Structures are given as C-alpha cells and as structure tokens.
C-alpha cells in the first residue's frame, strides 16, 4: 500500500482563490513589501517566487534589496519607512539575515499589523494565548492543507520534530488550538522513533535528509515533510529532498512530497496573510494597542 499524496499546488490554488476573492472586496489592491538583505541564492529564489505569485493572483508587491554589507541601522530605517507608508499592507524581511544583524531587533521593528510572517513577539504571544491573528506562513499553510483534505485533528496525537520559531513552535500552537495532543521533539529527544511512532500526525521540520525512516512511522499516519534539502546525486545532479525517507510512503496513510508539498502552501499563505493584514487595516483594527490614528511605529 502506498500513501495518499497530499499535493501542494492544487491546495495552494484553493487558498489563493479565496484570498483573491477577499482582496476584491477591499478598497485597494493589497500591497506586500519584501525586504531582502544580501544575495543568498536560496533567498533570491524564494523572494522571486513570492513576488511572482503575488502578481499572478493580482496583488501588488515591491522587493527592496539592501547589500550584504548594509548596517542594522540602515535596515531598521527601511523598515520604519515601510511601517509608516500607508500604501504598504504587508511587510516581511526575508530570513536568514547576515550575521552582523540581530534578527530579534529586526522582527521587533516590524509593525505587528503588517507582520505577514507572524514573527513579531506580539503576534507570537497572541498565537500562544489562543488568539491567532497574523500567523506564520508554513504552519498556517499546513493547517490549511490538513483541513482541505479533511484530515481530523481534534483528539489526535500530533508529533512535531523540530522546534524552530519559523515552523515547529508556531505549528505546535496551531495544532493545540485545533484540539490535537501535541508533542514537540527535537535533536535532544531520546529514542525519537518511540515518540514519532505514537503519532497520528507527524510533522518533520529539521533539515536532515532521510531522518524519518519507515520503522519510525505508525501505519496509516499522516506525514507532513517540511524539510527542504539540496542534495547532489551520484551523477552530480542537484535535487531537492525532504526530511522523510521515500520508503515511508509504504507505511504512511498520507504524505506530502518535496518539492511540491508544503513549499507552495507557504507562499500561498503569505499572500493570504497579506490580504488578511489589509482587511485588518481597512477595518481600522488596532492590534498593537497604539492610540487611534497612530499608524506609526509600534512603541515598546
Ligand atoms: N521571512 C521569511 N519568511 C519565510 O516564509 C521564509 C524565510 N524568511 N526564509 C526561508 C524560508 C523558506 N521558505 C520557503 C518558501 C517557499 C518554498 C517553495 O516554494 N518550495 C518549492 C520548491 C522551490 C525550489 O525549487 O527551490 C517546493 O517545495 O515545491 C520553500 C521554502 C520561506 N521561508
């Protein structure tokens, strides 16, 4: 028996159709600003993909590129300008940043109402308080994928491998909100297989090709592979592979492929978040608690 394939692109299309419809009801076309620092090839490619998809679904996007050598102050000045620009609804700074820039300071500086990545501590806190607003794209995309395929969550045992602030941690909050019983495993977890074998839903976001082997998976489980690993085969050809060994398809009930699984959902969710941010702003929603009329920087 082979696992049902949970394909990303058709699911992403459903999410994008809904976002485009909602965008059509807004007073202006939502505008996403993307900031990239430096020329990391993966970041260049991801940012290009996000801007292209935005155009395809009829959203506006602008990409702001700073050189690898830009100072933290220069980046913060750009963020401040985009925060106060009323024409910008969504703002994201592509990660990772160069080592001389403090990621936390940058994430704090983004207006939480424009924070389409959901990485600002205010949005992180709201998520963990059970009031999700702008939520991180990969975890929210995974929830959309699971719901779209009618995979039950309430009362089930979910195991997440990986505790990153981009995926593992926010996904734990969302699955908890969906009434799953959630375990977060990581590199120090003892006997990982005994933990993952208990999972009805297994999500893997580690960045280690082939980490999850068939013996680590409960028969019939849903397996979500968030890993994006570039590997070179014996012929010297490059491939993208996930964290889940291909043989897991013989044990799992459902499985996301890499590529063509979670990645396209992440991009679609980013655009859905941009529409959501524009909706909040159009409704005059003041999530940050600043005084009415103050659309300036979030004051800590
Ligand atoms: N501020 C910020 N927000 C992010 O959301 C963010 C980030 N920084 N930094 C890097 C990670 C990674 N990420 C991906 C997006 C799309 C694909 C994607 O579309 N993948 C395709 C393949 C693309 C390819 O061929 O490289 C797929 O899986 O089918 C993958 C990974 C967003 N991230």
TrEMBL record:
Gene3D superfamilies: Leucine Dehydrogenase, chain A, domain 1, NAD(P)-binding Rossmann-like Domain. InterPro entries: Aminoacid_DH-like_N_sf, NAD(P)-bd_dom_sf, THF_DH/CycHdrlase, THF_DH/CycHdrlase_cat_dom, THF_DH/CycHdrlase_CS, THF_DH/CycHdrlase_NAD-bd_dom. SUPFAM superfamilies: Aminoacid dehydrogenase-like, N-terminal domain, NAD(P)-binding Rossmann-fold domains. Residues 136-281 form the Tetrahydrofolate dehydrogenase/cyclohydrolase NAD(P)-binding domain. It catalyses: (6R)-5,10-methylene-5,6,7,8-tetrahydrofolate + NADP(+) = (6R)-5,10-methenyltetrahydrofolate + NADPH; (6R)-5,10-methenyltetrahydrofolate + H2O = (6R)-10-formyltetrahydrofolate + H(+). Residues 8-117 form the Tetrahydrofolate dehydrogenase/cyclohydrolase catalytic domain. Belongs to the tetrahydrofolate dehydrogenase/cyclohydrolase family. Catalyzes the oxidation of 5,10-methylenetetrahydrofolate to 5,10-methenyltetrahydrofolate and then the hydrolysis of 5,10-methenyltetrahydrofolate to 10-formyltetrahydrofolate. This is Bifunctional protein FolD. It comes from Deinococcus aerophilus.
């Amino acid at each position: 028996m082979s696992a049902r394939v949970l394909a990303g692109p058709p699911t992403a299309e459903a999410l994008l159709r809904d976002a485009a419809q909602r965008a059509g009801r807004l007073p202006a076309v939502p505008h996403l600003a993307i900031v990239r620092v430096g020329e990391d090839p993966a970041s260049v490619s991801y940012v290009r993909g996000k801007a292209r998809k935005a155009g395809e679904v009829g959203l506006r996007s602008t990409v702001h590129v700073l050189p690898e050598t830009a100072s933290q102050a220069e980046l913060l000045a750009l963020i401040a300008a985009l925060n106060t620009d009323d024409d910008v609804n969504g703002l994201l700074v592509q990660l990772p940043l160069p080592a001389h820039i403090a990621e936390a300071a940058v994430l704090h500086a983004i207006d939480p109402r424009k924070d389409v990545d959901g990485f600002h501590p205010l949005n992180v806190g709201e998520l963990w308080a059970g009031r999700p607003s702008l939520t991180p794209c990969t975890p929210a995309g995974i929830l959309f994928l699971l719901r779209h395929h009618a995979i039950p969550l309430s009362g089930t045992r979910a195991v997440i491998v990986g505790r990153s602030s981009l995926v593992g941690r926010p996904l734990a909050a969302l699955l908890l909100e969906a009434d799953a019983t959630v375990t977060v495993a990581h590199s120090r977890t003892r006997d990982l297989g005994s933990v993952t074998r208990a999972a009805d839903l297994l999500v893997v976001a580690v960045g280690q090709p082939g980490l999850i082997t068939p013996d680590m998976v409960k028969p019939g489980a849903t397996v979500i592979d968030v890993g994006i690993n570039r590997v070179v085969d014996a012929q010297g050809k490059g491939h993208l592979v996930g964290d889940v060994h291909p043989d897991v398809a013989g044990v799992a009930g459902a499985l996301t492929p890499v590529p063509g699984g979670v990645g396209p959902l992440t991009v679609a969710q980013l655009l859905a978040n941009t529409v959501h941010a524009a909706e909040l702003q159009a409704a005059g929603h003041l999530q940050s608690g600043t005084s009415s009329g103050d659309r300036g920087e979030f004051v800590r």
